[in-house]
Amino acid sequence: MKLVIPTAYDPKLSIPETQKAIRFIRETFQDEFGREMNLSRLSAPMFVDQATGLNDNLSGVEEPVHFTMADLPDRRIEIVHSLAKWKRVALKRYGFKMHEGLYTNMNAIRKDEELDNIHSAYVDQWDWEKIIAKNERTLTTLEETVQTIFKVIKHMEHEVWYRYPQAVHHLPEQIHFVTTQELADRYPDFNDKERENAICRELGCVFLMQIGGRLRNGERHDDRAPDYDDWQLNGDILFWYEPLQMALEISSMGIRVDQDSLVSQLRELNLEERLEFPYHQMVLNHQLPYTIGGGIGQSRLCMLLLGKAHVGEVQASIWPQAMLDQCAAKRIQIL
Hints:
BirA Bifunctional Protein, domain 2; 8-stranded mixed beta sheet
């Protein structure tokens, strides 16, 4: 258990006021985000059949919560880690057209998460996906999409300020684009998290690009599943978060794999057996649209905009008693 206690922390809002602010942020953001990105809201599953290959494998070491069903006793059913692959299949299944997309509420359980101020076993995010043309699988498309998302987040800051001026956490005016290799060159003696903290402290908000592949020194900045994002065309939106003195990731996103990047990335990790899954076969056989997509943390966004010290102030989850006791002593109001 890791816990950061800000000096002289003031939650600004009572628990009832915070609950109202959470509802306002979630409802307003998803409407504005969907409109700006041309996305329609869809319902999505909480669990999938392991045999489909649709679940997100994250970094490859986290075990999904799983169970069997009375009517499907021989099937391993898994709580989703995210809907990264399911969304791409849904766009085809529901007949979405070029430059149309979807967003959905994604709720997950990540039981292996190390709990701290910003990590919970309960994950809630807006998962989104949008169809693009093959010739739009470019850095330009990625950066333009990131700028649109940043614009919506900035507009939400102004909306929150209008309603809760005493509580809003002010954000930087622009987002900067940096690759993981540029970051390693800039801070060669730092580890990956120290690099993220350093660049965000300096620039305020960063889209850190090209996560998953090897750097020139043979290391990886961070692990990323090999079968949804193209590692050359992905990244994370990170804000410098003054209350906790750290980088706060709000979104992970990217242009999705085509048949070539899927094979090369699986081969790099010696996971070519995944190519037999139905989802991977659809990618290989050109049966799915080219897409860009990602996830935006709902609780993380509320935390960022309201200046909260702990994600448990904006979501209900389970925490160690020692953490609850420390938070209560410092006016951190865990729900």
